[in-house]
Amino acid sequence: MEKEGIEESSVKLVGSRGGGGGESRWVDGSEVDSESPPWSLLDVNETTEGYGSVRRRLVKKPKRVDSFDVEAMEIDGSHGHRSKDVSIWRTLALAFQTLGVVYGDLGTSPLYVFSDVFSKVPIESDVDVLGALSLVMYTIALLPLAKYVFIVLKANDNGEGGTFALYSLICRYAKVNLLPNRQLADEQISSFRLKLPTPELERALRIKETLEQKSFLKTLILLLVLMGTSMIIGDGILTPAISVMSAVSGLQVKIPGFGTNALVIVSIIILIGLFSIQQFGTTKVGFTFAPALALWFFSLGSIGIYNLFKHDISVLRAFNPAYIYFFFKKNTRKAWSALGGCILCITGAEAMFADLGHFSVPAIQIAFTCVVFPCLLFAYMGQAAYLMKHPDSAERIFYDSIPDSIFWPVFVIATIAAVIASQAMISASFSCIKQSMALGCFPRMKIVHTSRKLMGQIYIPVLNWFLMIMCVLVVATFRSTTDIANAYGIAEVGVMMVSTTLVTLVMLLIWQTNLFLALCFPLIFGTTELIYMSAVLSKIKEGGWLPLVFATCLLCVMYIWNYGSVLKYQSEVREKISMVLMLDLGSTLGTVRVPGIGLLYNELVQGIPSVFGQFLLDLPAIHSTIVFVCIKYVPVPVVPQEERFLFRRVCPKDYHMFRCVARYGYKDVRKEDHHAFEQLLVESLEKFLRREAQDLALEINFNEMEFDSISVRSRDSGVPGGDETGELGIPLMHDQRFEETGTYTSEEIVSTMPSSVLSADEDPSLEYELSALREAMDSGFTYLLGHGDVRAKKNSWFLKKLVINYFYAFLRRNCRGGAGTMRVPHMNVLQVGMTYMV
Fold this sequence. Notes:
Belongs to the HAK/KUP transporter (TC 2.A.72.3) family. By secondary structure, the chain is an alpha/beta fold.
């Protein structure tokens, strides 16, 4: 995007944190490379009218003055990475919670896996049972254990998982985001954590350049991410349906006359109850469900060991993978069809990654390796041992293999576990939609944060009730777990294939893994998933069409929203007000300036938005102080509090206009306290003005020294030179702390300033501007919002007109917007209408 150094006469007070360069800084309208020494003399061409001469000036690089924390909740982990010194007890507590939230779906798979497999392959010999058992065991070991636990979980984005977390990682290292609002200063956010060069850097740079230059590759990656997200939400619909129906079907075995209608009604009642309790939050749900799931896994393992020793311990031969070959050799096409049932043993595996934001990597790894994996192996081996003696029980193997004396207790636990299984994909759906909204790929909806300790635990009311309605429709329509299972397999394998593709790209671009190892990942896991996909696609006519139709519809919604948002942003960039016009209007802006502070919310990170001109035309007067506030989401989970905001001055001093770019990660929380916002805004502006005056006084002082032939370096022995990254200024958020302690950390290297600089508050122009700011604050704040209508140009293609004028317009009218999105008080809002022709 074009750089507008001449448009904004400002000091953008940002500083590096050591290491990577590439940051730029604004000094009186000129952009200066941050890789220059902390002190340097530059020739700056004055572009403002009346300043045609070239003058020498001293440029310094103060630390970033990220001025104020506006709406961030004071909750653990909200302003930085999770603490690395998490106690083992905390990790174990989280691991216990994962049983109730993450592993419910995976844990209930023994209810229906062998029933579905042997509905396609009748049991005729031991090879059928041993081959199916070997397939199940190695599928669990290969995909959930080897792929997710040991590899994919490590591809998290500062503790956040899911397809959008992978996308945000890729967006940080390559500019593949279609919304062109990235700034060089964003790369200085500590949570970016860009890797240092490695021997594989050249290959990674080639991949980066290719991705950035080819627009169709950017679109392809976005579509891939959106498809994966759509499949996860599809899982959120199918998981509750199949899990609950499979558990309740046990009543058909023990209660005569309990038919299909009764099964459907009971399942729907349970599903409605499940979605009704989501509003209480993941923590409460997790601690409520975790004991039940722990008991369920204990029951699976115990019953499996009991059946293993009682019926046929020789099924341990299935550890020999040769039985997989024998199974396919004997059954050929039927065995390939049975893969569609075998894949059900890992349903919910994607929840381990998608739900990562609710927990932590060690917690999920400990729970799977120590509890889930061994219990599942024992459960499947026990069922296989029972089938060796009772091959006719394949259709209802789970309930038939339970000893009669404990049938009802296990049935109750199984039903509870099936209900809980739905929680994994419901939580994952919430996380994915939150991330997609933050990255501009989904219409805005209300998000409720249910925990003050863990940011990732959220509840989205609209999505929750939508999932409930869809689940009820699926159960009422299909009325059978067999058809739902066919649909389930396609959604699950689709999500895994998307993850494999994105993680491979992360390995090559970000991890810079050895090429051979990086290619082994898709070769092993991608090939396995393609084989499973070929099997489940054969069931499209038998229910497999459902996730494809749903994913396609959701994909269209997400892509249309992203497409329209990008076009709207590009239109705003083209139509922004030029600085020449602003200078022609003068400091009065062609109208009357009345006391007060106007906060104009817009999406531009540079330039003056066209909606401001509409305000000047429609309002009889404008506020004496104007702040352009840009709420911007960057591709990181969390932006630390002290790095969240950037200030800069817009136009000359007597205009009293400023810009604030508020940067949020896709996990950041914003609370609706506009009073704190306003107070912090004024305090931060005052500090910004003082620092600006201090900078200018320091610059003038050293200019005088230079003209007196005095060496700058001899006057400033405390400032590092050469390639060092010492900093002059102190972040405003820490000013008071430093004044109280009188000491500085090693990161804040402060030079000895002349007394003329330290007395910058005595500057009459500064005191006048501060008094004007206080007067404006006393008069109150007004929130200026533009209500934009997006229309396609008349010469656009018919398809573009259809998408923008109808579909995108419908989404904009029905999504959450305006004051609700910006978290501003309705009583202090002024809105004007704008039409953007795209």
